[in-house]
Amino acid sequence: MKKTGFLAGAAISTIGIVICKVIGLVYVIPFYAIIGTQGGALYSYAYSIYNMFLNLATSGIPVAMSKVVSEYNEVGYYNTKERTFKMGLKIIGFLGLISFLVLFIFAPQIAYLIIGDVKGGNSVEDVTMVIRVISTAILVVPFLSVSKGYLQGHKIMQVSSVANILEQIVRVIVILAGSFLTLKVFHLSLNTAVGVAVFGATVGALFAYFYVYAKIRKSKSLNRKAKPTLAEVKITNKDLVKKIIFYALPFVAISVLQSAFVMVDVFTVVRGLTGIGYTTEISENVLSVIATWGSKLNMIVMSISMGIVMSLIPAIASAYAVKNYDEVNGKVNQALKTLLFVCVPMATGLCFLSSAVWTVFYGYNELNSSVFKLLIMSQITLSVCSVMVNASQSMNNTKQSIIALGGSLIAKVLLNVPMMHLFNLIGIEAYYAPIALNILIDTSASLYLLYIVKKDTRVSYFKTVQTIIKIVLCTVIMVLVLSILNMFIPSYSHSRMIS
After folding, report:
1. Fewer CB within 10 Å: C terminus or N terminus of the chain?
2. Over pLDDT 90: what percentage of the chain?
3. Whether residues 291 and 218 fall in one domain
4. Which residue spans traverse the membrane (predicted)?
């Protein structure tokens, strides 16, 4: 296996991510047509819970593995970096097993927290089954993640990218073929079809892991059998564990907080809306849009905007390390301006065309497209918040990032259901409340982090504010043009083809 230079590695990683995102976006069209709205809600329950526990099991460890392996590789401590890899596999295996057992054993209780005694949609038994099926992936994915981190520590990027694509392709094949055969050929139940579909995560991870494992085993350039030097003998396994945990903890904390944010909606939206008087079908529809199906379309905005901006984060870190605050000022403003230049017009355009976009991917649904209309606009504040969290981390301000995200999570937990009741009281559809609250919270967290960065590095946002005004004016003009065109050319139809 050949090592990859920085630019080539970044290009390979970006191409891999884009291919995976495209596959992940396109497959939902036939899949949603197969399982329908109720099946889509059940699928979203499984993946929302799975992502939370997967983050608990894997967040930070692969990044830490990459960093530690890279450090020891640079100084020629080849035996120590192999010990680090083995230690990382043991740690991640233990965390994965614990997460799997918790998820598998307590699946009925988790399902009840989501559904409660609500009738007329998916049952507690249905949700329990799909959670247990997808929990098996947590036994495999952690090993895959650490193995990819190990290779990335050697600056070998192409294997991870190929593994990501392979995992996605296999997963999608299982999802589509499995759900179609289960429902249309064998005429089994909907929950069985969704169970087969979510098992695709396990199958895809297995294929990818065997591929990465084979590459590592066959490679002769990794110095896997090197003898320890005298200096390496002094480095104990305890030292390695401490180092892995030290590097991993900030990433774990931030990733878990971000995942928990989504989990609040999973545990409160259905119960909150049915408590107000909405039907179970409507409540599950809304949650599936927020937690899964709408977020897949949001990837259009997130992937492009974040891909542009994240390349600037290492530059911010480098400038901050040498206390070049003028450079930090320039890069932070450049990141924000680039993000908003791409994100605001794109999100606004998708909002304007929300019915057509939703119809193309999932078929016509007035309720879901109206929820998506607000959800896509929330990506603007979410993108800004994500960039500021990353920028803050790159300037050794992980503590402030955790405070911002922790405060956001507390606000979400305390206000999600009350906001639904408030919206209902003032005559606004209550299902908009969780998204509106997200916008408010993300804005508050972004303002807090903008203030912290300004205080620590004397960053001035004057030029960014000027750019924002120009972007808003151009976006308003775009909306006016689209509105005029819409008077002559309908922007949506009940037909996928016409949309």
Report:
1. N
2. 52
3. no
4. 7-35, 91-115, 127-147, 168-187, 193-214, 244-264, 297-317, 338-364, 370-389, 401-419, 431-453, 465-489
Average pLDDT over residues 17-26: 81
130 alpha carbon, distance to own chain's centre? 20
Instruction: Confirm whether 41 is domain-assigned.
Output: yes
Res 432 pLDDT > 70:
yes
Six token digits for residue 149:
């981190």
Domain membership of residue 243 (yes or no) is no
For the cut 80, the answer to whether the pLDDT of residue 304 exceeds it is no
Amino acid at 407: G
CB of 145 within 8 A of CB of 209? Answer: no
Give the contacts of 174 (CB within 8 A, at least 6 positions apart). Answer: 196, 197, 199, 200, 203, 204
HSE, CB side, 13 Å, CA atoms: give it for residue 160. 27
CB 392 within 8 A of CB 401: yes
Single-letter amino acid, residue 337: K
CA dihedral 54, 24, 209, 69 (to 10 degrees): -70
Structure tokens at 45: 């329950």
Global pTM reads: 0.83
Residues contacting 354, CB < 8 A, separation 6+ = 369, 370, 372, 373, 376
Does residue 72 surpass a pLDDT of 60?
yes
- 120-146: per-residue pLDDT in tens? 778 999 999 999 999 999 999 999 999
Helix (H) or strand (E) holding 312: none
Q: In 353-427, where does DSSP find H-type helix?
A: 354-362, 366-394, 398-425
Radius of gyration of the CA atoms of the chain, in A: 23
- For residue 364, what pLDDT band results from cuts at 50, 70 and 90? confident
Look-up: residue for tokens 């305890």?
238
**100 and 149 both lie in a single domain:** yes
Out of 205, 235, 265, pick the residue that ends a domain: 235
pLDDT value for 6: 47
In a domain, 247, yes or no: no
On the question of pLDDT at 475 being above 70, the answer is yes
d(CA 100, CA 98) in angstroms, rounded, equals: 5
Same domain? For 199 and 330 the reply is: no
